[in-house]
Amino acid sequence: MSTLTASGVAGPRASRDRERVSSPTPPDVPTSPSPARGDAVDSYDVVVVGGGPAGVSAAVRAAELGARTALLEGSRTGGTCVNTGCVPTRVLAKTARLVREVRTAAEYGIAVPQQSVDWPATVARVRATVERVQAAKADPQRLADLGVDLVLEGRARFVDPHVLELAATGRRVRGESVVLCVGGRSRRLPLPGAELATYPETVLELPSLPRRLAVVGAGNTGSQLVTVFRALGSEVQLLDLAPRVLPTADADVSHAVRRAFEEQGVRVATGIDAVHSLRRRADGAIDLAWSQGGTRSEEAFDAVVMSVGWPAALDGLGLEAAGIEVTRSAVAVDEHLRTSVPHVFAAGDANGQAMLVQAAHAEAEAAATNAVLGATRRTPHLLLPSGGFTDPDYAGVGLTEDEARARDPHCLVVTVPFTAMERAIIDDRTRGFLKLIADRRRDVLLGAHAVGEEAVEIVQAVTTAMAAGVDVATLARVEFAYPTYSAVIGEAARRLMRAAVA
Ligand SMILES: Cc1cc2nc3c(=O)[nH]c(=O)nc-3n(C[C@H](O)[C@H](O)[C@H](O)COP(=O)(O)OP(=O)(O)OC[C@H]3O[C@@H](n4cnc5c(N)ncnc54)[C@H](O)[C@@H]3O)c2cc1C
Ligand SMILES: NC(=O)c1ccc[n+]([C@@H]2O[C@H](COP(=O)([O-])OP(=O)(O)OC[C@H]3O[C@@H](n4cnc5c(N)ncnc54)[C@H](O)[C@@H]3O)[C@@H](O)[C@H]2O)c1
Question: Is the ipTM of this complex over 0.90?
């Protein structure tokens, strides 16, 4: 059987005598013999670099299309998502929710003794859950069964546009096409004392719960960490250069989350001028200096978390050896996810576009298909739902109200507060709303934004309707089970039907 290449011409075969999984360390999977540094080159149709959500999707897709495929992972499969991002954050969010539930238990007649949080036990629980998700999602045998050679021999580095060298063994792997799925890492600000900061990937390494915590950056990551540590008892100061928290969310979502933070006792400072420095004090605390409106502040914290952005993880990748261009801290790609070098593609956080798991999957499948069959697929990401597990939760899909009004001032917007929904009243979770945005003819849903209980699931349900091209009248006729949070969708659709066009 001949192998596929991007041009459809028979290409070089991989060494099939190698085990499908190789690793420099002796885990429970067999390892392949490693040739001397730079000696041998194993050839594949498609080499995928990075084994996070994007890399695994790209490798599986390429293998499904019949390409000989290698997946090079420098650390652990699962990437940021499983190991240090979504999964641990979600377990921490559940921990925070449990604390809040316990706090209100007495209102339901349940006596709970004075609560306390055992941080090491929380961390152990998070780590155990990461392992369980690892086992379910990133099973090397599953990849092998799908026809992917998983190579765990350290970080890969280009030595020329087709060949990558693996740091742990020096083995060289050649790809007729290469798909870069190397993800990102937290941005490091070049500040005096920056080494004193904690980063989202390292919050679990905090030795104890900080009594006083500063979170710099109120994007998705920072906002979720605010909720977690506030619920666990920390005094929290949130700082951001942007004028509002969650700066890319719908403005009403952003305002609602900020209001909730402030009611919970979080000090929120947006529109600051700059963060200046961190400095270790004699008592072990960290002095953080920042300014706002020209006034300088300096305050002591037990920990300072920096969540100020997520550039692509390009250090040591040798992009210069391949001639691959970088723009704004990410690998530049065209609409077909092709880099400046035509046989190299980039998907997921590495290209700096959407930076969500669902986007990583979609981009990776398109990039791998393009790598194998030719570059024609695109991922316009018109419908990319996302959300975060703060207190309250928030979510959105499609255009924000400001974006929709900028395109058509006569678009229709309705907002249904959770105070109107029986389920929210029953659960005592009336903080929140669903905003639905439709075109003036009510043919197309343009956006949905929610704050409150089950916000992410509600927005996901609206996304399904949007993806199916459901018009407002049809949505208004859908029956929703009683009593559910998603019933707010039907109520919003009915209000859209009654809304007057300006
Ligand atoms: C705290 C936090 C919470 C998040 N929560 C959510 C969420 O709830 N929902 C959501 O959709 N998104 C969330 N995200 C974003 C999500 O984690 C990323 O969008 C997603 O992981 C991107 O997948 P990826 O495969 O592109 O990159 P990654 O998951 O970062 O994977 C990249 C992989 O490449 C490997 N690698 C890097 N360089 C090399 C190299 N040179 N050689 C070999 N291997 C290499 C890395 O070891 C890593 O395994 C969160 C992010 C953070 C930081
Ligand atoms: N639940 C989710 O879906 C989820 C959760 C976490 C992260 N993510 C994704 O991961 C990526 C990274 O998220 P993130 O929150 O780390 O980054 P981000 O870029 O989304 O937010 C960074 C925040 O830091 C602020 N900032 C930047 N420089 C600053 C400075 N010098 N001082 C003070 N504030 C500064 C920005 O204004 C912004 O609000 C994003 O694309 C995000 O969507 C998604």
Answer: yes
